[in-house]
């Protein structure tokens, strides 16, 4: 494809995208498909000779689009938000066009230095200590894995990298922690048996006294406490672990404290919502995802550490073909994580933060929190609906419970309710389990979600609850 | 930013990108900057209120662009190619605009099913066995880590995930293997001491008899051979490990064979160049990067496995909030790797393969191999230049060696030669070390590289060699 053809289709695609942003609400949030529907429409073999873009773009619209789940639909209340924004998409266009590989400073100095500054901006914006240094990771799963690995090395004086795992290192997290902790514990070779789940209180927050008990028992049994993962905003219910108390325990026992604030971290942009961050200054590492709730295209996960040298020492490798004369003066981010290859991801952060300004981003957060409160009030007005967890920030967990139903029946009834609500195509909510109870989750965070979608969700729930 | 503003800037950006593709050769390949130059131009704090896109785009052009290393410059001969293409950039625009999170089938059925089919296309295109299943990873580093983890679990009957590493598992790779192997071995908790480097022959290929010796010694010492990493196209010199012999050894001792063909894999598109793949059918896992040399924007690393069930069993996690009614019928790719969150990366592969067709991609490979041969002939015509490794596919390793210089002087002279050649801004080459000798590397693979750039590189080398 020559440059003029690119120019022509580029313009066509921009118009299509602008129309998509304008009309996304007209699509069903979640497509009504059965597995294999799309696959059956894609040929078994690649074409021998090139096809023209008219044909490919037509297939995109006719074959792919009917199978897209619309994360940018204003009726998106499922899982967590992954909101993008026009300035972020514009930046992604430039990133794709430049096609720069940002593994080390020399392979794109502007990318490395912009990343450094953007991480400083973000750190200050959410109130983390000024001594922390940051790096962009792809996901919180990866960032948490980096934390578990660094904790492992620090605790063993960097011997595990050399000698392998001892099998005695222990990791602690709340029973409500994200699945990526278990995954990371396995990958890093701790062994799942060495992941200790600490019970939570009625607010789904870790109980610090139980954490300390578990640590004491482990030490008595010759185990080595290496890492505690505190969660700010659990996936199921937005539970907030009490970091101040957990941090004190970590300091007392010299344990690495990693904080997973993947979704909720964005709320810390607003001072009045920042209460949950109390104690975050004790974290050795901290992750939050601008790609979730800060208008920045996936992937962009912000990972902060107090001791960057420990992080680098965990990952650095110095093959001859990657050595440069500036190595001692610059940040080579390939040593700050797992992957060698890295995209120019700082650019979209720069575009987003500058386009909206701090106040614009704060306004978005306030708006979503406000909408969530309005949804909660609607729920509270109907005695058939039961709220199952404290409503924090932008997540409401609830179920239909008219009274007199057995737990099992309640699960089944609510599963059906959720199905009916989602079948509308106008909203999409998901579910979880809270202390054994089936809960419907409504998570607010899509950029264009407004009171109209909140009312629509309520209307559908209210109507089908009566069926 | 409203949709109409997006539309306006979208068009402006498309024109800028088309102009960039047209004029990229006018930029210096590598900027002449000192560390901190860009950083000093970016404010210490984010703006309070939003700025308009005119201002941001102006800064992009004036602050960021002077600090970009131009990987898409036709004078790019450094490291490895990371070539993109107009259809790939167009697809990235759509991926960014849709902003779909492709962690499981339900969160984007079209993405999951297109990924499945694209991996089948790629597998067939490079001649891997039809039984292999594929998944897109971000990088070969990650894919190799997945291989090391699966090998670890298979060898310990999935007990390491539960109990942690034993410290007895061994990994083998050639002395010329990529640094990501060491990194992965550390991350997975094997311990670097358990990574055994096998010496290479004069072609920088692993010597199979030494591999078998090392395995025998390890077994005698109570160690457990778990994984052999074979490389097709080493980073330093494009060395090709003899997979047939290595594969037989792996089968004899029941060891997982992972093949890293990150760069060279693309050459297997052309049947006449596919000789190096002999034995690849014995691999348990295989990785190559369409984002290197197949016109597909980073990131897009194709990872293939024979036993997908083992891969999934290594990574799967089933939290309640991710369960869906279709789980048993579909591919949920979050269980095929480390990250939970995933971008819609299959789309760009679909656009690229269809736009160029198999023959168009083959033509690109042939063209680059041909240009490399022409460069080799130029080198061979000058007795002052010495070729330091067999020229395979698209990589030439050489040095200036007029005779009579000590090794140390030669290193210094060639370091200076490389510096002078790169200072031209017209080409960019990098270096490596081959059996202790400093080598300049010229790697051909940028989409628009032609005989003009080959001649220019030669002219600069030839001229400065005389200095």
Question: How would you summarize the topology of this molecule?
Answer:
2 copies of one chain form a homodimer.
Chain A: H1 3-23, H2 53-64, E1 76-77, H3 86-98, H4 109-125, E2 133-137, H5 140-155, H6 160-163, E3 169-174, H7 179-187, E4 195-198, H8 208-220, E5 224-231, H9 243-253, E6 256-260, E7 285-288, H10 290-293, E8 301-305, H11 308-315, H12 346-380, E9 385-387, E10 395-400, H13 407-423, E11 428-434, E12 437-443, H14 451-465
Parallel strand pairs in A: 1-11, 3-4, 3-5, 5-6, 6-7
Antiparallel strand pairs in A: 2-8, 7-8, 9-10, 10-12, 11-12
Helix pairs in contact in A: 3-12, 4-12, 5-7, 5-11, 8-9, 12-14, 13-14
Structure explained in plain terms:
Two copies of one chain form a homodimer. Chain A is of the alpha/beta class. The first copy, chain A, has three domains: 69 residues, dopa decarboxylase, N-terminal domain, CATH 1.20.1340.10; 244 residues, Type I PLP-dependent aspartate aminotransferase-like (Major domain) (Aspartate Aminotransferase, domain 2, 3-Layer(aba) Sandwich), CATH 3.40.640.10; 108 residues, Aspartate Aminotransferase, domain 1. Chain A is 42% helix and 13% strand. The first copy, chain A, is globular and about 55 Å long. The model of chain A has no long low-confidence stretch (mean pLDDT 94). Chains A and B meet through helix 1, helix 2, helix 3, helix 4 and helix 5 of A and helix 1, helix 2, helix 3, helix 4 and helix 5 of B.
Based on the model shown, name its key terms.
467 residues; alpha/beta; Aspartate Aminotransferase, domain 1; 12 strands; seven-stranded mixed beta sheet; Aspartate Aminotransferase, domain 2; homodimer; 14 helices; 42% helix; dopa decarboxylase, N-terminal domain
């Amino acid at each position: 494809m020559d440059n003029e053809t690119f120019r022509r289709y580029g313009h066509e695609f921009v118009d299509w995208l602008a129309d998509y942003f304008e009309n996304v609400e007209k699509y069903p949030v979640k497509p009504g498909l059965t597995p294999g529907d799309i696959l059956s429409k894609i040929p078994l073999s690649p074409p021998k000779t090139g096809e023209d873009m008219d044909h490919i773009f037509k297939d995109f619209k006719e074959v792919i689009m009917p199978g897209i789940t619309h994360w940018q639909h204003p009726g998106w209340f499922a899982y967590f938000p992954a909101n993008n924004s026009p300035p972020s998409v514009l930046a992604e266009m430039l990133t794709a066009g430049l096609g720069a590989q940002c593994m080390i400073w020399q392979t794109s100095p502007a990318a490395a230095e912009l990343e450094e500054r953007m991480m400083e901006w973000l750190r200050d914006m959410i109130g983390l200590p000024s001594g922390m240094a940051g790096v962009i990771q792809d996901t919180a799963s990866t960032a948490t894995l980096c934390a578990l690995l660094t904790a492992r090395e620090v605790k063993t004086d960097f011997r595990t990298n050399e000698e392998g795992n001892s099998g005695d290192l222990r990791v602690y997290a709340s029973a409500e922690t994200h699945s990526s902790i278990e995954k990371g514990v396995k990958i890093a070779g701790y062994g799942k048996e060495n992941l200790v789940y600490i019970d939570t209180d009625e607010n789904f927050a870790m109980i610090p006294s139980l954490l300390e008990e578990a640590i004491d028992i482990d030490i008595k049994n010759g185990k080595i406490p290496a890492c505690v993962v505190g969660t700010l905003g659990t996936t199921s219910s937005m539970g907030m672990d009490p970091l101040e108390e957990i941090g004190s325990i970590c300091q007392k026992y010299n344990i690495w404290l990693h904080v997973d604030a993947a979704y909720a971290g964005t709320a810390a942009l607003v001072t009045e919502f920042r209460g949950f961050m109390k104690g975050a200054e004790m974290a050795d590492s901290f992750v939050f995802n601008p790609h979730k709730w800060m208008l920045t295209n996936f992937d962009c996960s912000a990972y902060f550490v107090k001791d960057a040298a420990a992080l680098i020492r965990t990952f650095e490798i110095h093959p001859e073909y990657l050595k440069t004369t500036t190595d001692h003066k610059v940040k080579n981010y390939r040593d700050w994580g797992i992957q060698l290859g890295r995209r120019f991801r700082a650019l979209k952060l720069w575009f987003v933060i500058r386009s909206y300004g701090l106040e614009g981003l704060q306004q978005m957060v306030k708006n979503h929190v406000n909408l969530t409160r309005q949804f909660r009030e609607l729920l509270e007005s109907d005695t058939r609906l039961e709220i199952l967890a404290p409503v924090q920030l932008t997540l409401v967990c609830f179920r239909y419970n008219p009274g007199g139903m057995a737990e099992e029946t309640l699960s089944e009834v609510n599963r059906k309710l959720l199905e009916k609500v989602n079948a509308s195509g106008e909203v999409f909510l998901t579910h979880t389990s809270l202390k054994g109870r089936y809960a419907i989750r409504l998570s607010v965070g899509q950029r264009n979600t407004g009171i109209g979608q909140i009312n629509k969700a309520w209307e559908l729930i209210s109507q089908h609850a009566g069926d």
